[in-house]
Amino acid sequence: MQRRIIKKQNEKGKRRGDQNMHEALMHLRETGIVPWPWLDDESRSPIFNLSWDSLTEWATTAVGWTRLNPWKGRPPKTLTESRAVAGILRNLADQYCFDVFPTGGQCGGWLRTVVAPELVPGDRIFYAGDLDLSGGQIEANTRA
Q1: CA 20 to 30 Å from 94, out of 56, 84, 85, 86?
Q2: Tens of pLDDT along 105-117?
Q3: In this predicted model, what pLDDT tens digit does every residue of 20-76 receive, in sequence order?
Q4: Residues in CB range of 91: below 8 A, 6 or more apart
């Protein structure tokens, strides 16, 4: 789709160009070739209302989610070219306790208001992109 070989837009009365890809991905999951958690849909997020019946229940539940910092000092920050790349890193970020910030295009305001306040001198910052055709512009904007 990024190279416009597959059309994403639906022409009147025809299947969407990406429908074959969606069906192939579902087949890979349903047959067990690709584990379900490997494919993440960043366009849908549940909203959970976490609540407990007591402080004891909260504390014993929270222990299972607690991760101690494995880094000497502050964990690294990882900027990603897109939400899709961030989705790929989500499980690793949870396991290894590092922060991920998906940029996704012209995001100068977001970098200043959300990312910059999280940084201190000496922080390690990594970048992960997916090498799509517009990635160079996104990376250049993020660097600037």
Answers
A1: 56
A2: 667 788 888 889 9
A3: 888 888 899 899 998 888 777 767 777 788 889 999 999 999 898 888 899 989 999
A4: 37
* Residue 104: both structure tokens together: 């996704």
Domain ranges of the chain: 1-39, 69-143
Is residue 80 within 8 Å of 89, Cβ to Cβ?
yes
3-state SS, one letter per residue, for the chain: CCCCCCCCCCCCCCCCCCHHHHHHHHHHHHCCCCCHHHCCCCCCCCCCCCCCCCHHHHHHHHHHHCCCCCCCCCCCEEEECCHHHHHHHHHHHHHHCCEEEECCCCCHHHHHHHHHHHCCCCCCEEEECCCCCCHHHHHHHHHC
For residue 69, is it left (φ>0), alpha (ψ between -120 and 50) or beta?
beta
What is the bridge-based pairing of β-strands 125-128 and 99-102? unpaired
| Contact present, 102 and 80 (Cβ < 8 Å) | yes
Residue-level pLDDT at 106: 66
Query: Residue 144: which residues within 8 A CB-CB, separation 6 or more?
Result: 108
